[in-house]
Design brief:
By secondary structure, the protein is α+β, with helices and mostly antiparallel strands. 44% of the residues lie in helices and 15% in strands. It binds zinc ion (ZN).
């Protein structure tokens, strides 16, 4: 993997055979493994958080019934906050784009700066 770079810095010709890449084979960007792990952690954390909240409410014999749409949204925000934070972090992480030559076996992975 190379250093972080912008999509524009990815070579437009193959360094092996010199083939000019068409605009059409602009590489698709995907999440790094690290970002995927963060998303997974976010899902697991949300599950654990829900279990914890449920346990606390059960232990304290609390029943929470939202009486308005604002209360419902507030509860949803509390429940989803940890997952949303991690998800937002994962989205901002640099992405990987693979440039592949259609003519020869050359390919290279480029790390693209995340969402600015
Ligand atoms: Zn090539």
């Amino acid at each position: 993997m190379g250093n972080a770079m912008k999509l524009i810095d990815i070579p437009k010709t193959c360094p092996e055979c010199g083939r000019v890449f068409a605009r059409a084979d602009r590489p698709r960007q995907r999440m790094q493994v690290k970002a995927k792990m963060v998303v997974l952690a976010g899902v697991l954390l949300t599950c654990a958080w829900m279990v914890l909240l449920t346990g606390v409410f059960y232990a304290w014999r609390l029943t929470v019934v939202p009486r308005s749409i604002e209360e419902l949204l507030g509860m949803a925000a509390v429940v989803l906050a940890p997952g949303t934070l991690l998800g937002g972090w994962a989205i901002k992480m640099p992405r990987v784009a693979r440039r592949k030559c259609p003519k020869c076996p050359w390919y290279e992975d480029y790390v693209i700066d995340g969402v600015r």
